[in-house]
Design a protein that fits this description.
By secondary structure, this protein is mainly alpha-helical. It has 2 helices and no strands.
Length: about 45
């Protein structure tokens, strides 16, 4: 699993800014599973 940074967005606009700033950023929301795909190198987000 690669190293990544975490950004907690307080607003939708903040989330959009974070996504547009980093091309490999991914969103995590209620019910979203991202850690398992990262373990198996399916997803490799930087943020």
């Amino acid at each position: 699993m690669n190293r990544f940074s975490y950004h907690r967005a307080d607003t939708v606009d903040d989330a959009i800014r974070a996504l547009s700033a980093e091309s490999s950023a991914r969103l995590i929301a209620g019910g979203t599973k991202l850690v398992d795909p990262m373990k198996y190198d399916v997803e490799q987000p930087s943020t």
